[in-house]
């Protein structure tokens, strides 16, 4: 038996913010953002939208495409670092209620930008052990509400969106989710975090500022970490499976910065044209970036049954990893 991606879906908010729009708020420019990151636009959620709303819309598309109803879903996994609520209830529970998938177990995955990759491997094992038949894995983020819009080091980088996949038992045409690399370097936890608001440093009025609640990042350190682990993950997945780069149809990387991908390709002599990139339109949507890309590739009819694709991601934690998947 195997576990396949039976369908994908995505939703990005309608509101589109260009680099020029961001430059009206902080001291930056289209030229700087584009040349340093590859980003041109990002999508921003409406005031009345929360992460679960984006997740629900992406999941609804994936469910319809899988020809399943919400009653068929056994487990909902929402990978997010921008949940509707701090701690609980999980965003997955809110999504369950919106979908009326009342038979499904629910939990959020906190692995930042690597969350969807972790989710696929968890779902695969859930299916393979027989614990459930149909799993919804969603990557959903509303990062625009967790950045300091006066900090040009971070606010230019992120966007909002969601992507979803339905994982089910497969068929003989595809090996589905073959295997994964799930790793972390917890010693790098301080490099990317929201420093205040958790149990380590609760928000105290008068002591902390609102901006202390927002994302802080040591950009250069994360940049170098990302290049290193992208190369390590791709090499490991190829080696473990006895494959070469020629066997892959595409690599779908977490979309954080086009320069990170270019630098990894240059250092490890990887073919840049195998990497699917859409960072120009959506910026960094953390756990949503890989499923949004998969959905876009599906809609462009780029993915054929039997194609081998490799995902690779990295982010806060610091987490990293990848999945080798044969498209079903
Ligand atoms: O999802 C996973 C997590 N995130 C990432 O993977 C991001 C990893 N890091 C990066 O992608 C890059 O480090 C950044 C895009 C964040 C920054 O690019 P950089 O080329 O590493 O810039 P830098 O931090 O070395 O800054 C260079 C200069 C600085 O000015 P000075 O000190 O040289 O005068 C910054 O103040 O660029 C300045 N700068 C900006 N200037 C205009 C930083 N942000 C901006 C900006 N607009 N938005």
Fold and architecture overview:
This protein has 328 residues and is of the alpha/beta class. The protein folds into 2 domains: 3-171, Thiolase/Chalcone synthase (Peroxisomal Thiolase, Chain A, domain 1, 3-Layer(aba) Sandwich); 177-326, Thiolase/Chalcone synthase (Peroxisomal Thiolase, Chain A, domain 1, 3-Layer(aba) Sandwich). It is 32% helix and 23% strand. It has 10 helices and 13 strands. Strands 1-7-6-4-5 form a 5-stranded mixed β-sheet, with helices on both faces. Strands 8-13-12-11 form a 4-stranded mixed β-sheet, sandwiched between helices. It has a two-stranded antiparallel ribbon with strand order 2-3. Strand 4 (75-79), helix 4 and strand 5 form a beta-alpha-beta unit. Helix 3 (51-66) crosses helix 4 (91-99) and helix 7 (219-240) crosses helix 8. It is globular. The model has no long low-confidence stretch (mean pLDDT 97). The structure holds oxa(dethia)-CoA (UT7). Oxa(dethia)-CoA (UT7) is lined by residues 28, 32-33, 36-37, 113, 152-153, 156, 192, 219-220, 222-223, 226, 256-257, 284, 315. Oxa(dethia)-CoA is lined by residues 28, 32-33, 36-37, 113, 152-153, 156, 192, 219-220, 222-223, 226, 256-257, 284, 315.
